[in-house]
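Appendix C: a fully annotated inverse folding record. The material below is reproduced so that readers can follow the format used throughout the book. The structure is listed first as tokens, followed by the designed sequence.
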């Protein structure tokens, strides 16, 4: 039969209501277009990250809809009653585990094994607290199913030495205990290198064409290779001199080259001298091994004569080109064998030790230990399945109510997993606070939400702990939401953080703000103009005073005593005219307003004033109303890696519930006496009363006429 779904409406759209285990298991059949979210990050949420990592089967840092369905299917398969998921408890009765499947039997048996290991064999339920030290318990076992064997697990000293040498040559991996050990892959690599190296050595051990000097061949080959290129160079130059006698002198280097060397401080290791030929170039000239050679190379030639020439050719003082060719031929087989040397690091153990390892049973013994460890892998896996089931039993229902639907967010029963705490700033508390990693990137994406956002850098513990949040202001006004202001942020654990505003995104906050916005702007403009005028007048007065002082200091004669300057009417005519024009304009406006009001009936005057205010504030109010109705949550969460699948609107009433304004508690007694209040003047009240009387008298006169 088709599952019957219940939906509730919140945020401007229908959301599925999950009230039973059957609802949870049937989610696989619910069209995912009806899910609020199809993905969320595994970090930055008020949710156990370990559980999110378990659900995140591909370990890409995001939980997606299909992974949520897989988690529900896993829990539903192992629980006799899926309604248990709704409780959100961190403990589970062993009798609640469905043992009708092989996996269920393993989980139930593993749970009992864990309780027995903890000294509670009679316990009938298991909790996450019982698993708090399960990793330590597993790590302390000799065999924990990870396929890694540590040297400390080996009691035989001979075999333990092989373990140490193996890790020395091919590296190690970490066991669950954290100790270094070896697995089957490293074992195969090590013994493959041992076999290859010993086989390579065996190939040459009985071949005299390769080991022409027996055990001294390796050293002789090194000495031979050290001078081979230079001797080849020498005989090639002699061949060129035989080909053309004119080349002998330049091939031996020019006089200029020697003159350049003459200015240097020379020694037997000089690099530039080493580039010169081995000896002077003459056609058909053999190479002297004793004297007349490049001093940089003489020591190497001495070693070459003693270790190579003498054992192979007998005592020689010179080396002919033909003899050199014979020596080269003798080392061809050795060079070919050297080129076949297998790669690896086992050579450091020496051929004797490698032969011992190769001929022993060490490999089969290590493989047996690894196989024994792997044999308990299924049992250890079941231990992890117990933890997985317990975490899903506790957390899955909470996740789906913040993923498939946003029930927690809209019902207010508890905060959503993306709400990280409460910000107190500017006489308000903001409940919609989300954690952000990069303020600039998040702000660029979240600006389209239509929500007034304030980004804060939060620190605590002397700056050791830091995070950034975005707080939504949905009540009050934005007059004092400025960069640099400080507030206090309380996280979900109740810890307090120092919060500093670092960025704001300005959008309409409330209808009240929009209504008074034109008057505030007018008041602000008038205040700024008056400040500018006062500043200008003050500056003029200061300049005039300074000018008077300077002029008086330069005066050479004072005016006649008792003489008065004549009044210049033309000089002040412009000033009088401007003042009169301003007074006339103001009077005309006031006269028009008063005349218009006096022309109305008495009961119409308040309506006229209200209409005038509505005319001024109406456009701003209407624009704000439309914008406030279109605020939506998706851009805020999308910027954090969510995949929001619905248009989650934050309308005016719901927005008002997310930000609380300061207010006196119910029943509080309030005293209006302020000892430091500014002394108010009586004249504004007197003028207001006089103006009221004038209006009343004028209205009565007009009414009688």
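Designed amino acids, in order:
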């Amino acid at each position: 039969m088709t599952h019957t779904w219940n939906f509730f409406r919140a945020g401007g759209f229908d959301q599925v209501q999950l009230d039973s285990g059957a609802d949870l298991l049937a989610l696989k059949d619910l069209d995912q277009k009806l899910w609020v979210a199809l993905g969320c990050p595994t970090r930055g949420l008020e949710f156990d990250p370990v559980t999110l990592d378990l659900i995140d089967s591909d370990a890409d840092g995001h939980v997606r809809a299909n992974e949520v369905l897989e988690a529900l299917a896993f829990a539903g398969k192992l629980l006799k009653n899926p309604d248990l998921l709704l409780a959100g408890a961190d403990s589970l009765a062993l009798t609640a585990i469905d043992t009708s499947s092989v996996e269920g039997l393993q989980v139930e048996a593993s749970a009992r094994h864990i309780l027995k290991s903890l000294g509670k064999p009679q316990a009938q339920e298991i909790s996450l607290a019982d698993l708090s030290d399960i990793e330590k318990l597993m790590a302390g076992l000799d065999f924990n199913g990870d396929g890694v064997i540590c040297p400390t697990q080996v009691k035989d000293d001979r075999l333990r030495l092989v373990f140490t040498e193996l890790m020395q040559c091919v590296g190690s991996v970490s066991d669950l205990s954290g100790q270094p050990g070896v697995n089957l892959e490293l074992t195969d690599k090590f013994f493959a290198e041992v076999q290859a190296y010993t086989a390579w050595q065996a190939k040459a051990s009985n071949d005299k064409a390769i080991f022409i000097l027996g055990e001294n061949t390796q050293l002789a080959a090194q000495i031979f290779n050290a001078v081979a290129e230079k001797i080849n160079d020498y005989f090639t130059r002699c061949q060129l001199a035989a080909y053309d006698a004119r080349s002998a002198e330049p091939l031996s280097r020019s006089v200029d080259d020697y003159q350049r060397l003459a200015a240097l401080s020379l020694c037997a290791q000089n690099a530039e001298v080493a580039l010169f030929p081995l000896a002077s170039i003459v056609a058909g000239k053999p190479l002297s091994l004793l004297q007349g050679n490049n001093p940089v190379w003489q020591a190497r030639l001495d070693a070459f004569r003693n270790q190579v020439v003498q054992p192979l050719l007998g005592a020689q003082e010179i080396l002919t080109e033909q003899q050199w060719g014979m020596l080269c031929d003798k080392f061809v087989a050795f060079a070919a064998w050297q080129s076949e040397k297998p790669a690896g690091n086992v050579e450091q153990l020496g051929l004797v030790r490698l032969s011992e390892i190769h001929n022993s049973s060490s490999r089969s013994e290590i493989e047996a230990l690894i196989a024994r460890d792997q044999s308990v892998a299924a049992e250890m896996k079941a231990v992890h399945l117990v933890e997985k089931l317990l975490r899903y039993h506790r957390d899955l229902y909470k996740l789906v109510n913040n993923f498939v639907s946003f029930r927690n967010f809209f019902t207010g029963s508890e905060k959503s997993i993306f709400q990280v705490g409460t910000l107190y700033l500017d006489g308000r508390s903001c409940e919609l606070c989300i954690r952000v990693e990069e303020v600039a990137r998040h702000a660029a994406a979240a600006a389209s939400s239509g929500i007034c956002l304030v980004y804060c850098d939060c620190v605590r513990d002397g700056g050791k702990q830091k995070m950034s949040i975005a707080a939504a202001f949905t009540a009050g006004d934005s007059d004092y939401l400025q960069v640099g202001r400080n507030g206090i942020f309380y996280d979900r654990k109740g810890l307090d953080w120092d919060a500093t505003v670092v960025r704001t995104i300005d959008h309409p906050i409330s209808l009240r703000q929009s209504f008074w916005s034109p008057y505030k702007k007018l008041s602000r403009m008038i205040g700024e103009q008056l400040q500018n005028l006062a500043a200008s007048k003050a500056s003029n007065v200061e300049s005039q005073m300074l000018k008077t002082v300077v002029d008086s200091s330069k005066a050479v004669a004072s005016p006649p005593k008792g003489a008065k300057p004549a009044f210049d009417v033309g000089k002040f005519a412009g000033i009088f005219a401007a003042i009169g024009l301003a007074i006339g304009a103001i009077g005309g406006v006031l006269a028009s307003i008063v005349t218009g009001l006096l022309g109305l009936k008495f009961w119409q005057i308040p309506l006229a004033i209200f209409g005038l205010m509505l005319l001024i504030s109406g456009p701003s109010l209407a624009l704000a109303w439309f914008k406030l109705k279109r605020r939506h949550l998706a851009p805020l969460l999308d910027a954090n890696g969510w995949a929001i699948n619905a248009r989650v609107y934050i309308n005016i009433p719901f927005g008002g519930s997310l930000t609380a304004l300061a207010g006196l508690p119910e029943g509080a007694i309030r005293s209006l006496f302020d000892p430091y209040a500014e002394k108010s003047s009586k004249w504004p009240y007197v003028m207001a009363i006089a103006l009221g009387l004038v209006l009343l008298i004028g209205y009565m006169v007009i009414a009688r006429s």
